[in-house]
Amino acid sequence: MEIKVQKNIMNRNNEIAAENRQRFIDDGIFTVNVLASPGAGKTSVLLKIIETIDGKIDMAILEGDIASQIDTDKIRKRGIPVMQINTGGGCHLDANMIRVSLSELKPAKNAIFLIENVGNLVCPSSHDLGENMKLLIASVPEGHDKPYKYTSMFAAADAIILNKTDLLPYIDFDKEVFYKGVHALKPDVPVFEMSCKTGDGVADFVNWLKDKRKLWQTQHTK
Amino acid sequence: MHEYAVTENILKIVIEQAAKADAKKVLAIRLTIGALSGFEQDCIQMYYEELSKDTIAAGAKLIVTKVEAQLHCRNCDTDFALTHTDYNCPTCGVAGVYNDDGRDFMIESIEIE
After folding, report:
1. Could you say which of A5, A7, A155 has the minimum Cβ distance to residue B36?
2. Number of domains into which chain B is organized
3. Does residue B77 lie within any of the structural domains?
4. What's the CA gap between A173 and A165, in Å, rounded?
5. Is there a domain that residue A27 lies in?
């Protein structure tokens, strides 16, 4: 006998993600899921955001890594509330890990909450955490072909940073090919060229992020 | 690696549905997996065999319908499958954009006795 099921397999994750999303709305917390391959510069970008953003905006950081406290230690030195999740081999964060860590990290009301996902261009794209936006960080040394190889990730991104642009003179990175792939997957996605080394492009991105948060707050908070 | 967790989800949903229908055994599970869902059939199969041991769903056949990713050309309105890597429309050559096909990841039905 055949029984119709018709269930999305990610339902349980998506239900918890929806609870997280409601909590973020209730507390006015603007949450960014930061995605990239290992070594693209996630933590460097986070540190640049912390340095550049208006000191009146509270921040909270969640660091997802398979192992180690290295990234957390760098952020803690800046006096920002930070918590490390070690997935112990797991390749991504899921909605329940976020729910559990919220009770310990306790981001302030109206904070910007940055979640650094596990360095991986595959699995994290399939798991909604309840975030308000997905920020993908690509970097020049990875090559211009990444939008063609990691389609799910590039298709999921709400904004993209192209990091390490200071290396463009030394690397065969074809920006035209990169942008064509990016826009095939997501025609209107904003792309920010940035160098954490020189600071180029950091202010443009941080201003955009602040505007995005303000718009979200006017739409969602009472 | 992440197929392990989703295979646990699949098994949980299947056993719930089978129990509701008073099934003695689950014979087959029909899944739809989109090319953009990020999940691999072979990997799910491997974890399924391991995780389903000693359950009423042990040994069930996984029957997978794959949904290819489709692109849409906004210039000439053609839908086309991604067969090569430049995203260009086979009709007019303009770069296409992915539509929602290929993102599915569903349990469609189960076969029980």
Report:
1. A155
2. 1
3. no
4. 10
5. no
Could you report the predicted ipTM of this complex, rounded to two decimals? 0.76
Q: Do residue B17 and residue A5 have CB atoms under 8 angstroms apart?
A: yes
Distances (CA, A) of B48 to A54, A87, B28, B54: 50, 22, 12, 12
Residue of A nearest to B11 (CA): A9
Q: For residue B109, give the nearest of A5, A181, A183 by CB distance.
A: A5
- CA separation for the pair B111, B106 (Å, rounded): 15
| Shortest Cα distance, chain B CAs vs residue A201, angstroms | 27
CA B3 to centroid of chain Cα atoms: 11
- The answer to whether residue B5 neighbours chain A at the CB level (below 8 Å) is yes
User: B61-67 and B26-34: which strand pairing?
Assistant: parallel
pLDDT on residue A59: 96
CA distance A160 to A74: 23
- Domain extent for B60: 2-68+100-112
Tell me whether B19 touches chain A (CB under 8 Å).
no
Give yes or no for B108 touching A (CB within 8 A): yes
Q: How does pLDDT run across B17-69, given as a tens digit for each residue?
A: 999 999 999 999 999 998 878 788 898 999 999 999 999 999 999 999 998 88
